[in-house]
């Protein structure tokens, strides 16, 4: 039996983060987080690995771009899940990353994870 994929959630809205966590756990994934800030995400990533991540772009006065950069540098697949458009991403290297809009229903979430995280694990 294989270990479940470990997915990091970076989301500053508590209820959205918990809903994502519950949905992903029900799909059989192990969830790290949700964490509300880039600093907390980086602390978690330095002590625990993940197979993929779901990142909200806007985290209060900060963005998840430092986390996205770290994940990119380490070859960890991720996608953005946000209430904003790609124009809220300042790093040109991240503008091409997959971006989905909130709210996201469970079926769309499952498809996005399969497409951008599960698929990358098999590649």
Please describe what this structure looks like.
The protein has 123 residues and is an alpha/beta fold. The chain has a single domain (6-122), classed as 3-Layer(aba) Sandwich (Rossmann fold), CATH 3.40.50. The chain is built from four helices and seven strands; from the N terminus they run βαβαβββαββα. It has a five-stranded parallel sheet with strand order 2-1-3-6-7, sandwiched between helices. A two-stranded antiparallel sheet has the order 4-5. The radius of gyration is 13 Å and the shape is globular. The two termini are 19 Å apart. The mean pLDDT is 92.
Label this structure with key terms.
123 residues; alpha/beta; Rossmann fold; five-stranded parallel beta sheet; two-stranded antiparallel sheet; 4 helices
Provide the fold topology:
Elements lengths: L5 E5 L3 H13 L3 E6 L2 H10 L4 E4 L2 E2 L2 E2 L1 H9 L4 E5 L16 E3 L4 H17 L1
Parallel strand pairs: 1-2, 1-3, 3-6, 6-7
Antiparallel strand pairs: 4-5
Net shape: globular
Shape-level CATH architecture: 3-Layer(aba) Sandwich
Instruction: Report the order of strands and helices.
Output: EHEHEEEHEEH
- The CATH superfamily is known as Response regulator
Given the helix and strand composition, which structural class is it? alpha/beta
First-residue to last-residue Cα separation: 19 Å
Main CATH class = Alpha Beta
Strand content: 15-25%
CATH level-3 fold name? Rossmann fold
Summarize this structure briefly.
With 123 residues, the chain is an alpha/beta fold. It has helices spanning 14-26, 38-47, 65-73, 106-122, and strands spanning 6-10, 30-35, 52-55, 58-59, 62-63, 78-82, 99-101.
């Amino acid at each position: 039996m294989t270990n479940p994929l470990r997915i990091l959630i970076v989301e500053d809205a508590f209820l959205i983060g918990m809903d994502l966590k519950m949905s992903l756990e029900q799909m059989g994934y192990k969830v790290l987080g949700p964490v509300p800030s880039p600093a907390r995400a980086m602390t978690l990533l330095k002590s625990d690995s993940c197979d993929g991540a779901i990142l909200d772009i806007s985290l209060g006065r900060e963005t998840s771009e430092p986390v996205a950069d770290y994940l990119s540098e380490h070859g960890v697949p991720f996608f953005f899940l946000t209430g904003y458009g790609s124009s809220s991403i300042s790093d040109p290297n991240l503008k091409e990353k997959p971006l989905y809009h909130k709210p996201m229903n469970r079926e769309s979430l499952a498809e996005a994870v399969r497409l951008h995280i599960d698929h990358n694990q098999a590649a």
